[in-house]
Every structure is written in structure tokens, then in C-alpha cells.
Amino acid sequence: GLPALLIAADQEGGQLMAVGEGVTPLPGNMALGAAGSEALAEEAGAVLGRELAAMGVNVDYAPVCDVNINPRNPVIGSRSFGEDPQAVGRLAAAMIRGLQGAGVAAAAKHFPGHGDVTVDSHIALPVLNADRQRLYAYELKPFQAAIEHGIISIMTGHLAVPKLTGTMEPASVSKTIVTGLLRNELGFQGLIITDAMNMKALYNGNNVPEISVKAVQAGNDLLLFSPDPELAHAAIVRAVQEGQIPQEQIDASVRRILRVKKWLRIDDHRLVDLNQVQSHISPDAHRKLAE
Rounded distance, CA 90 to CA 88, Å? Predict the structure, then answer.
């Protein structure tokens, strides 16, 4: 039979739309933050979800849960709901209800919070100079709200949090952050996925085996966009064989992936009805909502 795959996209609404052509052009999170309406945020999530589902995309790397408290941030900006962690949490939770209500798995990003940095992690390693108290007061609030509202997955960001880890290691490959903070302290039981493994904050052109093994050791279940998937796979298999990664950890990750596929009822949705795509994407009701 056909493989039942997780098909994912960065479909945030606003400036970051992986599929831009023909879909409803939603105004994005900063506009939703300005409107302050949970109902609108939920509807926006539902529109994103319905249109993705019609295309056969079952995972959306949204909503952005970063609190935009640094005006010099070059990469989050209007992708954030705003600078108030409480409000960001409320609107993110509403968008999650909309997305997941439409049968698409949402992914809160970029844990533990990409808002208060001045560097774009696609280009270099950002540093979040927050201590534990400050993280709980700001950055973590929207992620806690997402977890409370049944978020299916959370994406880890390539940013250093030296006051928690004691090193300049990116959060995405830090066991302290991924397993310690997200799994154990915040109690998140869902799927943890890295941000793209080809970003310069992590990837230097020849360290695929090392960063791949570290990402798994940290506690991520899925590695996104590896620069060399075959090399990454071989390195992880070798690490398991050599006892650097326990087999039970791999089994637990596989179980979490299968749980998401079960939640998606993926076996019932292996094929997209191409005759339905046009009518489901950007109907009048969706365009009216965007307006």
C-alpha cells in the first residue's frame, strides 16, 4: 500500500506561507495580535487547516509562539502575535484550536522562544540571555498555553540559552532544554521536532553526523530538513548500535510519531481528491475572513 507520511509545511499566515499561490492570503499573527480576537485567531487557524488538508498537508509548523519583545529581532517580527506573553498564549491557543479542529497537527515554535534575540538563526547562532525566572515570566508562557490546549508538536529553535545550559550549545540539541525543560518540567508528551537542520546556527557544512546524533540525544523525535538525510540516518543508526542512544528512546519516539499518525487518521487520507482542491482553497468565506 501507499506509505502514510507526515507532510508538513510552514503555513503561518502573513509573510511566511510555504504555499502562497491560490490560497487565502491571511494577514498574519501581528494583525491578529492587534485585533486581539481569539475568535479571529481560531478562524484563521481553521482556514489554514482546511486549505492545507485539501492539499494533503497534515502538519503545519504553526503557530509561532515567540514573544516579540526585542524590536531589533530580524527574523520573528510580524510573525509574532505580539509582546505580551499572556496575549500571545491566548491567541496561539485559539489558532491551535482552529488548525487541529480542521484535522491538521499544529506545531508551536520556536522553543524555548526566539523573540528576544538580535540574530537570525538561518544565518548565525542567536543568544537568548534569559535566566530561568525570566523564561517562565515571558518566553515559556505561550508554550505552556499551547501544551494545555493539546498542541500535537513543538519545534525546538537553534538558539543558545547559556544561563540554563551553561554553554553556547543551541537549545535544539541541548538535553537540558529538550528533555529537561520541555519534556520533564513542562510535561509535554507530544512530538518534538527540530527546526531545519541546514540552518547556519547549527550546520557548518560538514557536521551532519555530529548534529544529527546530538539532536536525537537531546530528545527530539523528528529532525527537520537535514542537509544529508542518508548521512544523518547512518550516523544515528551507528550511535544506537554503539550504545550512545538507547534503543528504548528510539522506540519511544517512533511511538509518538505513530500516535500522531493515528490522531490524523492518516490511513483514511492517503490520497487527495484533486477535483475538490479548487473548491476548498480560497472560497469566498475564507477571503471574507481575511478581509
Answer: 6
